[in-house]
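[agent] plan:
  1. take the single chain provided in the ticket
  2. run structure prediction with default settings
  3. attach structure tokens to the ticket
  4. add a short note for the reviewer (M.T.)
[agent] executing step 1
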Amino acid sequence: MKISKSSRHTKITGKFGESLILYWLSKYGFECSLVDHTGIDIIARNPHTQEIMGISVKSRSRTTGTEEDYVTIPNPHIEKVEAACATFGCVPYFAVVVDAGDIVRGFIVSLNHLLELFPKGKSASGWKMSKFYMNQYAMDPEIKRFEFNTRTIHWW
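[agent] step 2 finished; step 3 output follows
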């Protein structure tokens, strides 16, 4: 089925990703809250480590043929995350949510580890979504991840 996205789909995708990460953290005992601050979207306390996390959520909705596209994280945004986390005394993290057809994937990784995997380039870092990297992420204990399959049963 061909999908034609709404004019507000990018904004809605961002809110969906933030809510999904917030839900997943809450489901597993993290005390967390959405915040409206430059650089971070969620502040959470990890119940296992007591670490306070400042999380920036990056969400994408991919169309057929773009499911493996790289999620770009511009260098100025990384700097905003670091500044916000310094202000609130939390550790910087990124969460990436990608809706790629019939599967939605979520990842949570510290900024330090993200930059170990994908150092800043001239203008950006990012998150790779190819099958090769999915396999790498599966073996990396520092990357927390979830995925679920979706299926539209009956639609217009």
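[agent] step 4 note for reviewer: The chain has four helices and eight strands.
[agent] ticket updated
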